Amino acid sequence: MSSPTLEVKNLRTYFRTPAGAALAVDRVSFSIEKGATFALVGESGCGKTAAALSIMQLLPPAGYLAGGEIMLNGRNLTELSEAEKRDVRGKNVSMIFQEPMTSLNPVFTIGEQIVEAIRLHRKKDYNAAKEASIRMLSDVGLPGGASLFHEYPHRLSGGQRQRVMIAMALACKPDLLIADEPTTALDVTIQDEIIKLINKMKASTGASVLLITHNMALVYRNADTAAVMYAGKIVESAPAKGLFRRPMHPYTIKLLRSIPAQEKRGVPLDTIKGVVPPATSYPEGCRFSGRCPREMTGCAAVEPRLSEYDAGHVAACHLWDKEFMATGQSRPLETITDALAPITSPEGSDIDEGKTLEEGKTLLEVRGLKTYYPVSAGLFKRAAGYVKAVDGIALIVKKGATTALVGESGCGKTTAGKTIIRLRAPDAGEIIFKGTDVANFTGAQLKPMRSSMQMIFQDPYSALNPRLTIKATIEEGLKVLRPDMDASARVKKISATLKRVGITPEMMERYPHEFSGGQRQRIGIARALSVDPEFIICDEAISSQDVSIQAQILNLLKSIQRDSGISYLFITHDLGVVEYIADYVSVMFAGKIVEDGPVEEIFANPKHEYTRKLLSAVPRIDKELPPLWTLP
Amino acid sequence: MPVILSTDLIVYFVVSAALYFGLSARNDGRAREVWFEIRKNKLALASMCVLCLYGAAAMADSIRFRDALVDEKGAPVVSSDGAVLYSPQPLSLLDRALPGMRGNSEKTYSAPFSDRLFVKETMETPDGRVVRDYPLLKHPHDHALGTDRIGADILFTALKGVRTAIVIGTGATVVIIPFAIFFGVIAGYFGGFADDAVQYVYTTLASIPGVLLIVSFMLLFGSRGYQGGVVAAKDAVLAVFVPNDRLFWLCLILGITSWTDLCRLIRGETLKLREMDYVQASLAFGSSRMRVIYTHIVPNLMHLVLITFVLQFSGLVLAESVLSYIGIGVGPQTASWGNMINASRLELSREPVVWWNLLGAFVFMFALVLPANVFGDAVRDALDPRLRNR
Amino acid sequence: MLTYVIRRILYAIPIVIGVNVLTALLFFYVNTPDDMARKILGEKNVTPEAVANWKAEHGYNLPSFINAKESGAKVLTETVFFQKSIPLLWLDFGRSDRNNIDIGTEIKSRIWPSLAVSVPMFMAGLIVEVFFAMMLAYYRGTYLDVWGMVMSVVMMSVSTLFYIIGGQFLLGKALRIFPISGYDTGVYSLKFLILPVIIGVIGGAGAGVRFYRTVFLEEMGKDYIRTARAKGLPEGKVLFKHALKNAMIPVLTNVVVSIPFLFYGSLIMETFFSIPGLGNFTIDAIQSQDFAIVRSMVYLGSILYIVGLILTDISYTLVDPRVRLK
Fold first, then answer.
1. For residue B350, how many C-alpha atoms fall within 13 Å in the half-sphere facing its CB?
2. Facing C218 at nearest CB: one of B322, B373, B389
3. Residue of B40, B283, B300 with shortest CB distance to A465
4. Which of A211, A262, A493, C93 holds its CA 20 to 30 A away from the CA of C68?
5. Each residue of A302-323: pLDDT tens digit?
6. What is the pTM (predicted TM-score) of this model?
7. Do B215 and C294 touch (CB under 8 A)?
């Protein structure tokens, strides 16, 4: 075996923060063989991007390397002078970033930006560099020739820009390409194209790839070796397939089991209790202690070593450490509870006990719904035409069931949701809710239906008014819709609802910034639930969250449905979520519904071309993987 | 008998608002966070203390009342119909606290801490000779910053200028805040015609160069009403309140010329807030627009108002001096640093130079504007780092 | 792009009219011609006849906005507003109230001294500010940057008046390097211009450096700067090529808007240095309460501002391809 392209040893990176020095990367070691793809995977804030920037020596001003070696083809990058480091960047290591929309300089043509990279590292004259970059552009699937060369970034789509980024990064044939969440900001079908392109370019240039992502399926599909990061450390590293077949670290297991997928339907997703400790004050022992389902007495005090427990498979967990297990410290503190406890309606809440589910009955039917936005153009900015955001869609939501509205960004699904809940008026069509067409209702007429129809939003940070306490936030709906309630009745109702979503009612006088993202999302759910709706629209309600939090929210929504027979309209682009939670699915494309039906049917046998493309683009982990993993 | 000028109301309002913010910072989570952020910056904290001192001086100089007139025997003077007569000159708490400084005027110029007048006079010595020399002062070594042309203590004049500066610096923004919020929110939230109209008005107003707008307004309004100094009976309402204060007009006019920025900022922020999910959530409850504006929009705009308030402060203080210099600022009767600078221009061309009037104005102004800038930056960074560009 | 420019110009028309109406309201309604006459003739002992005479002489003897005595179009045309304010739209400024001089001619002759001071001051100021701002941005976080910022804040906390008075006193009176004030024609004016230019540059530097520094730092934090660094570009090239060209957009906004104002000169500078420019003209008019001149200058200033805005919008298209190619 030849020597590895990249070898990182004991990398330590700190960030100066107001709260003190944050240990972003802690003694991380790994190596990447020539031509291989190595994936660093983990939830947000685990230090994977900081590790990548440390390798590039491109840390922001607040960050600094505190130790370790970065050996690139036998050269230690940390010992180079600033000029030598610059020479390595772009020539030996290059990087592509998450946001293609902002990563290219808007005032230079894409040609100039690629030529700049080429001329910097290879002594070519302008014309030779121009030729090389046009060739590079066609290699990455942008065969525009000279006209594309002179184009400015804003004229390209996100996917095209990411291709330009790849062309620029690979223009000097680097030994290592670092791809930091290269597909996260893109649509599913584009994601697939970009990841295929990276694989193709890797094969043709022989570069090694360091893939940084939070998407487990992407790792499973594309990486040779994968390392899971948690709280600044690598907790487990193995050949990618092996990591998924036999995960060894409890964190990895938990993570994999919290990913929503079809085979987990009907079963609650696994969740991880607690939150990641702050990077300024990590626990002395295992970083996962306090959250681990198999925590033992000594875990919080003794740091587990990263040792090889299987061929090429290393993990940092005491459970596999025979020496540790032989000591007296290894007494389990608790046992795994796999299933989520059934939810009983909390005392004092006024959920109708024993409400029978009227399965099969239609709660909401949408027919021919159209919502247009005027577009202005010309000298006087007259309305020159319309963007047909929603162009005649039909939808059915059954009682106690979940319908998913799936589509890519910009297909009109969010506008459809806002129109159905009557946050804006439709231009045409019917919205029949409980037998009444509410499409043309105005102001006062809408009021009675407001309490039966509610919405949960995507971004937990903009969903709560930062100037209001949690109590005031939830109380607003009650004040408006339940004028019969007095102040004490409202407080009672608020605490009952908060309890239902798993927030201690004592916290109701706090402000949103005192809560984590997951908690805020729960509060958003509580706000919708407080007025006892029959129907909730979840607009990408979980897409901005990490998988472990996603799982908690999905479980919560599912249990609420089970207990009170609420119907959901799930607006999402995440097909895993759809498979897991939805009963019916409608696929939306460019303002129209192209296909709908029961979820199993659509997923098993997609008829429309777009649905097929969508389904094939989603990276998946094999369904044959063992559903439950075992720890010693 | 108390006298309240319309500008006093501004000072009262600002002081009570500052106290309110200070107190609410103790239990409101967000405010407390901002306070912690500011507290980390030692320089900002020191600046805040200086600003508080200035604020206290301005407050002390804004509580004023008139004394009953007394005759030589100390008995109150009454008018023919038996009512007690009051002095037309109201004295503020500041005046009363510093009776020495207020009363110890000399004949004309004298240098700081000097014991003699700055101007030679023809005097008769005890032995009968007539000499031209610098006469002794009535209050030697008493004037830390010297005296001016009419012999008034410059330190005292500069202290009196504090209130003028604070009133201008805060008043111009305070007077205009309600309008800026009202129009900004209307334009941003309702859009359409209201938006076009408001935008048209502020673009038009912004097109007129600020200085010229101020000039024309002051020419038209400025010579009416109370100009500082003695309160005439015709200026006062019910003998207590003086609504038509030239300083107040100056505030209003400076406010009108500077409100467009705040209004534009508020409009932009409202446009953003309108699309926030919590506003959508509120609408999904069927809340009325008024309710949405009142509970969700306006409270989330207050940081912009506060930032504008602190950032405009120093600019307004500087503007006052320039305007007073041109002769369209506060009246010549009102103590102001601009008037002091104006006077010092001639004094600098004297031989030898009279420099202390300028020094007094400079020190007092610099000691206010510098902390205001430092503190303003700290407040802005704590409240909204995105606005650093302004 | 042509439609863009035309649209920008069309947008300006209602604003010009708005300014015109506003100035007319101020000068003919809030402050009536009677008030004007009384101020000019002296506040005391003015007979109604004298006021009426003065108004007739200066063409103010008509109703302000609507002449009910006339019929047809004359209802509107036979008014002070129509005869005094509408001509401003085609830059006919009329005659002054006090000396009856032709304001337009006066403006034309006074523009040159204003330009002679303001253009060098503006150019030198811009170069100094951008230079120091880029230096601070390049050395961000170092002591140079910290002290540079402290200096800027200190400098912008000092009133312009002190810079002028101090500068005149130090350089003009004490050291006798330059004449304190005055103006001459042609090349001889040079020695009079140096002092105001130096003082102007120093006075504006604090705020300017601070502003441009934040503009540059803002750009330095953008994603594409990280991309440029990831290519291996040296820091100087990142700053002077990638950041500078993007920073030109906010810089241009600041610069182009000021260009028309160069014609206008600076009110205070010109009075202090006795430069016979437009600023001085305005101050004199204010002090002598010549409302016709003040009104003309208010209007001229607004027109220049609006022209500046249009120029800014057009100049965007030169640096920002996103606007150019829309």
1. 15
2. B389
3. B300
4. C93
5. 888 888 888 888 999 888 888 8
6. 0.83
7. yes
Q: What is the mean pLDDT of residues B244-262?
A: 83
- Please check whether residue A118 is in contact with residue A132, taking contact to mean a CB–CB distance below 8 angstroms: yes
Residue A359 neighbours by CB under 8 Å, 6+ apart: A398, A399, A400, A401
| Contact C147/B at CB under 8 A | no
More confident of the two residues A417 and A352: A417
Per domain, the residue ranges of chain C are 2-90, 109-325
The pLDDT of A454-482, averaged and rounded, is 88
Cα–Cα distance measured from residue C84 to residue C296, given in angstroms and rounded to the nearest whole number: 10
Which chains does chain A touch, 3 or more C-beta pairs < 8 A? B, C
Mean pLDDT of A21-42: 91
Nearest to A476 among B40, B280, B295 (CB): B295
Which of B217, B321, B348 is nearest residue C159 as measured by Cβ atoms? B321
Which residue among A89, A106, A108 sits closest to C232, beta carbon to beta carbon? A89
Q: Which of C6, C227, C320 sits opposite A107 (nearest CB)?
A: C320
Q: Residue A466 and residue B300: Cβ atoms within 8 Å?
A: yes
CB < 8 Å to A165, chain C: 227
The mean predicted confidence, pLDDT, of chain C is: 81
B370–C contact, CB cutoff 8 A: yes
Confidence of residue B30 (pLDDT cuts 50, 70, 90): low
Phi, psi of C297 (to 5 degrees): -70, -40
Q: Give the lowest-confidence range in A365-379, A508-522, A590-604, B268-282.
A: A365-379
Q: Name residues 305-324 of chain B within 8 A of C (Cβ).
A: 314, 318, 321-322
Contact A421 B40 (CB under 8 A): no
**Which residues of chain B does C14 touch, with a Cβ-Cβ cutoff of 8 Å?**
200
Q: How far apart are CA C96 and CA C295, in angstroms?
A: 10
What letter does residue C187 receive in the DSSP assignment?
G
At C44 the pLDDT is 67
Chain C: residue nearest B362 by CA?
A: C162
- Residue with the bigger pLDDT between B32 and A220: it is A220
Q: Token pair of C258, please?
A: 């000021």
Is it true that the peptide bond before C63 is cis, omega within 30 degrees of 0?
no
Rounded to two decimals, the ipTM of the complex is 0.82
8 Å CB contact of C325 and A95: no
Within 10 angstroms of residue A193's Cβ, the number of other Cβ atoms is: 17
**CATH architecture group of domain C109-325:** Orthogonal Bundle (1.10)
Q: Record the tokens describing residue A435, joined without a space.
A: 């037998």
Mean pLDDT, residues A578-599 taken together: 90
Q: Where do the domains of chain B lie, and which CATH numbers do they carry? A: 2-71+84-106+143-389 (1.10.3720.10)
Running DSSP on this structure, what letter comes out for residue C279?
A: H
> Would you call C297 an interface residue with chain B, using a CB distance cutoff of 8 Å?
yes
Q: What is the pLDDT of residues C209-238, one digit of tens each?
A: 988 888 888 888 888 998 999 988 888 888
Rounded CA-CA distance A43/A251 in Å is: 11
Interface of C with A in 295-324 (CB under 8 A): 319-322
Which residues on C lie below 8 Å from B208 (Cβ)? 19, 22-23, 298, 301-302, 305
Interface check C18 vs B, CB under 8 A: yes
Long-range Cβ contact pairs of A115-121 (< 8 A, separation 24 or more): A116/C231, A116/C233, A117/A90, A117/A168, A117/A171, A117/A172, A117/C231, A117/C232, A118/A171, A118/A172, A120/A90, A120/C231, A120/C232, A120/C233, A121/A87, A121/A90, A121/A91, A121/A172, A121/C232
**Residue B213 with chain C: CB contacts under 8 Å:** 298
Confidence of residue B345 (pLDDT cuts 50, 70, 90): confident
CB proximity list for C167: less than 8 A, separation 6 or greater: C195, C198, C199, C202
Report the interhelical angle of B356-383 vs C160-167 (nearest 10°). Answer: 140
Which residues are CB-contacts of B81 (< 8 A; sequence separation ≥ 6)? none
